[in-house]
Amino acid sequence: MTGPVSGKTPAQPPQVIDYEGSDYQQRFWEQGGRAYEDLAERIALRKLLPPAGRRLVEFGAAFGRLADLYDGYEQVLLLDYSRSLLRQAQTRLGVGGRFVFVAANLYQLPLAAGVVDTAVMVRVMHHLADVPAALAQIRRTVAPGGVFVAEYASKRHLKSIARHALRRQDWSPYDPAPYEFVPLNFDFHPTWMSQQLQTAGFRIDRELAVSHFRLPLLKRLVPAPTLAALDGAVQQVGALWKLTPSVFVRCAVPGASPASLPAELFQCPECAGKLTPGEDSLDCTGCGRRWSTSHGLYDFKEPLG
Questions:
Q1: Which domains does the chain have, with CATH numbers?
Q2: Residue 33: which H helix or E strand, with range?
Q3: How far is it between the farthest Cα atoms of the chain?
Q4: Would you say residue 166 has pLDDT above 70?
Q5: What is the band of 11 on the pLDDT scale with cuts at 50, 70, 90?
Q6: What region does 106 belong to: left with phi over 0, alpha with psi -120 to 50, or beta?
Q7: For the chain, N or C: smaller number of CB within 10 Å?
Q8: Whole-prediction pTM value?
């Protein structure tokens, strides 16, 4: 499922998919027959996420589908490029309290260095045209001793292997290079993805293979909770081969955890300058740009004025 694509100029970061105004929550999740996938992903996240922490950020949080998994965290940042999806998350979760809603570009994160001890990114990697650039931004935001849990779409799954063997697809599931099957939708080879994570400064601690039974017939015949429970039972052993369309990875950031995290959450996404509160805005002391904070949404998608 894709949304409108924003353009790229030499002065801008890579292209990104914008789900602004989309019916992603309703069409893809609520009416899309993906109860099994949702439950299987939750099983994987419960295995990989630290149960509690000081501050967590979910990159590509959309309408907050997974927010209930973060009950053990003192503060939760839900970050997405789509303002409208974040407004849906606000409707579901409320404004204020533990949740902070942030509209921002993953390639130009407005988060201060080392500001979280846990980061999560599910169903986002497959939209990234420049994985190394995005991982570098994410790595900067996670404090030493922190954890990054990521999911990616694998190209080397059983269906693609079978189709390739039967000569029903031209591309090879064994080629390490990312495969763009439609614009800004990528599948990745597990070895290539592991290399990118390690190059970015993450240490891979654990992997899980997820969605073993993502077949329309099985999903029609077997109740979603039963199918997800079966998936959960084989996620660990399946990681030895990684032949599923989805792979989850838990990564660690080397170093000792700091006694405290930065009090200031944000920096200017354009110049990394200090931000000071204005009237319904955060104002950069470096470049002068102003960023909206209206109605409980920190909007770094584009500056005011």
A1: 33-253+261-265 (3.40.50.150)
A2: none
A3: 62
A4: yes
A5: low
A6: alpha
A7: C
A8: 0.94
Cβ contact 102:79 at 8 Å: yes
208 Cβ contact partners less than 8 Å away, ≥ 6 residues apart:
44, 47, 48, 235, 236, 238, 239, 247, 248, 249
Determine the Cα angle at 220 with ends 156 and 245, to 5°.
10
Dihedrals φ, ψ of 201, to 5°? 105, 15
Q: In Å, how far are 2, 84, 160, 270 from 24, measured between CA atoms?
A: 9, 10, 26, 29
Encoded amino acid at 255, one letter: G
Residue identified by tokens 């099983």 is: 43
Name the nearest CA neighbour of 152 among 109, 207, 103: 207
**Residue 9 pLDDT exceeds 50:** no
Q: How far apart are CA 232 and CA 66, in angstroms?
A: 17
Mean pLDDT of the chain: 95
